[in-house]
Amino acid sequence: MLPPPRLILGVESSCDETGVALVALPQDGAPRLLAHALHSQIDMHQAYGGVVPELASRDHIRRVVPLARQVMSESGRTLAEVDVVAYTRGPGLAGALLVGAGMACALGVALDRPLIGIHHLEGHLLSPFLSADPPSFPFVALLVSGGHTQLMRVDGVGQYTLLGETVDDAAGEAFDKSAKLMGLPYPGGPHLARLAEGGRSEAFDLPRPMLHSGNLDFSFAGLKTAVRTHLVRLGWLDQADALADPCHRATLSDLAASTQAAIVEVLLKKSLAALKDTGLKRLVVAGGVGANRALRAQLDLACARRGVRVHYPELHLCTDNGAMIALAAAMRLQTGQAALSREPAFDVRPRWDLASL
Ligand code: KG4
Ligand code: ZN
Predict the structure, then answer these.
(1) How far is CA 5 from CA 28, 84, 276, in A?
(2) Lesser CB count within 10 Å: N end or C end of the chain?
(3) What is the number of the ligand 1 atom nearest to the C-alpha of 16?
(4) Dihedrals φ, ψ of 259, to 5°?
(5) pLDDT, tens digit, for every residue of 192-242?
(6) Of residues 166, 189, 169, the one with CA closest to residue 179
(7) Closest Cα to atom 11 of ligand 1
(8) In what order do the strands lie in the sheet with 149-156?
(9) Torsion 111-115-120-125 (CA) sign
């Protein structure tokens, strides 16, 4: 008879979402999500137009234990059954990361269980393995989160080669900063995407930075500047009032659609170039911007034409969550690549290169 699956508790606290999850790792199969719970701080940070790191840390402290209790109760398991405690070691906000690391260390000591510190982007990158249509290795990964835009070649767990990345703003930042200039609430990405619905994507002529750079790097800072220039000309910079006026709203909807189209076109063309360069026929899209419907629709269409399979995380696991951290730990354990530690070390890494893993 096979031994029972190992249970991995995962804690995510790198930015503005507190996430806890329990994943089961059977001896002979894929990791399975048993329960997960999430608290988003969006409402709290909205008043400030962006994440306030000190408030983020304090809120993680308030939420992490109740969320862990919820996960244990929903899974029907007890803490004593947990075999390994995983947490996000970086990159992210130092104070916020320390909350998850502190919680994980405390649990590890109390239960006498080993810890695994996980790279946040590895969590995003592997998150489609929890979907109904998981990928297989090797694949090209387009990682598009709030702080990162990277194309990676992924040959297996822990085998990540950087193909290209942004030289300035990330795609998520381009969404968020452009949205803020238009007077939309934080985080701007989903709000801008909603405003773009029904807008004309060819209405404004916006730059496609580095589209023809001949490499797989990105740049989005110029796009944000172009959006600002249009808003200054229209007299609506940072004017939430303009959105309330139906006439102005139609123009802003055009601007939002044009901004989204520019970001999506660059992400699409660079992803296709990465697939061509590597000769791979599988693409994984992960990170918050991967929830964008326009991006998904265009990637699906272009990839179908080229015989490329595209894999996404489940929509609710696109943005930050604890499930992807527990999953990454499970996949590292499964492939013998987990750096297990029994030392309660607060060794978070706010800046941490994924390709260095
Ligand atoms: O991966 P994530 O949850 O957090 C980080 O690790 O950064 O990504 C957050 C980013 C934000 O920039 C947010 O605006 C963007 O993902 N985002 C979207 C959408 N949903 C989230 N951007 C465009 N369209 C969306 N539907
Ligand atoms: Zn993230």
Answers:
(1) 9, 12, 40
(2) N
(3) 4
(4) -65, -50
(5) 999 999 999 999 999 998 999 999 999 999 999 999 999 999 998 877 788
(6) 189
(7) 146
(8) 159-165, 149-156, 139-144, 282-286, 309-311
(9) negative
Instruction: Give Cα 137 distance to the centre of its chain.
Output: 20
Helices 171-181 and 188-196, packing angle to 10 deg: 70
Residues having CB closer than 6 A to ligand 1 are: 15, 145-147, 172, 175-176, 187-190, 193, 287-289, 291-292, 319-320
Q: Whose CA is nearest to atom 6 of ligand 1?
A: 145
Burial of 232 (0-12, 13-18, 19+ CB in 10 A): exposed
Position 1 scores a pLDDT of 61
Long-range contact set of residues 57-63: C-beta below 8 Å, sequence gap at least 24: 57/93, 57/95, 57/96, 57/98, 57/99, 59/18, 60/13, 60/18, 60/96, 60/99, 60/100, 61/99, 63/18, 63/39
pTM, to two decimals: 0.94
Sign of CA dihedral 116, 130, 136, 297: negative
- Domains of the chain listed by start with CATH number: 6-127+318-356 (3.30.420.40), 137-312 (3.30.420.40)
Task: Indicate whether 171 pLDDT > 90.
Answer: yes
Alpha helices in the chain (DSSP H): 42-46, 53-75, 94-111, 120-126, 171-181, 188-196, 221-234, 240-244, 246-278, 293-305, 323-334
Convert the pLDDT of each residue in 1-43 to its tens digit.
667 779 999 999 999 999 999 999 998 899 999 999 999 999 9
